[in-house]
Amino acid sequence: MAKGKITYSTIRGDSPGYYALVCVLGALSLAGFGSAFMMFSQGHYITGMTNAVPWGLPIVIAIYLIGLSAGSLVLSALSSVFGKTEFKAFSRMASLLAALLMISALISIVLDWGKPERILVPFFSINPRSMFSLNGMLYSAYITICFVYLWAMFNEKEKLVKIIGFTAVFWAVLVHSGTGAIFGFVGARELFHSPLLPPSFIAAALSSGTALMIMVLYFTFRFTGRKLDEELLRRLGFYLAMFIIVVAYFVFIENITRSYWPSNYAMQKFLLLSGNKYSLIFWLGMVGCGLVFPFVILINPATGKSVRWILVASALVVTGVLAERYTIVIPGQVLPLEIFPGMNVTSDFQDGQINDYSISLAETLYGLGLTSLVFFLYVLALKFFELMPEEAVIASDIPDTSGTGKN
Description:
- The chain has about 400 residues and is mainly alpha-helical.
- About 65% of the residues lie in helices and about 0% in strands.
- It has a two-stranded antiparallel ribbon. Strands 2-4 form a two-stranded parallel ribbon.
- The longest helix is centred in the middle third of the chain and has 31 residues.
- The protein has a single domain, classed as Formate dehydrogenase/DMSO reductase fold.
């Protein structure tokens, strides 16, 4: 990056467009909390969740946001840990976004409990053999690390920034490994159980986190009128293509391994070849949007250097990873548990039958509201904290003068 000092400043945030954006995001956030209150007061029967499928869209959104957070935090450490100084200008924005995404993810989990007042129970009833118990500690420490990292950057404590940067990267990997282990360690459900889920979650976090940051950086700099060197986005696009390859590798190995065992034939056929909605989400959403289409865009010389096409590829990845989270959480529950192998089980609770799950309006507003909350707080933070650089360029000099920024 530049040899000079990077100058950060607040945005003015006094334009009609800024106020309109804050109002829209605030209204969507309130709608999400209103939906959560309805679910709490009336019960989860107003959602698509059932006794057979107790984890619905709120859990999908939670692990999705955790992945975006982990990927964003790793990107914030590109300059301090990996020596990619050209990305130092984005470190404050990425670190804040990582903290906000994790906070929103935890809100999604807590409000989905049905008894959110029991939030402190996991901290007083520690079970080292429970990933839920361990992750409570990991998530709390993660948020603390994000804010300490931000504090060190604001105070320009370079040595401390580097130390906390290493810690942040290590903890982000640990956190998302733990999130993947919540599912991967469940041996009773074949579509959950896999030793590859923890590293697969990390790979998807890096791809989705990178894709999200590309879009956030582009639109933040554009709407605040500050200069952003397009070459920086192209370099992030290159990293995104590499992360897509890693995700594709894990997806292929995991599914080919499952398909190798005769006992998994019916399960894999249900997910991959049955033509149901889960198969469509897997092939069109996860494989198409998340892997094939964006990778082709990014490696094609005609489109891979175009910022607009990089934005399209990023949007596809963000959508595809959401589809991937859905195909991990939901199909694993709709398939019946084989409690008594080799025997038919029937009861009034439809044991042994394939169940169904459809996203309700309440869950849609819930997920949209919590996602909007992240960007509502992010947009407000830009106005009150010096998070944005005056400009982000690859050049030999960066102005040292301070300013108040535009918009």
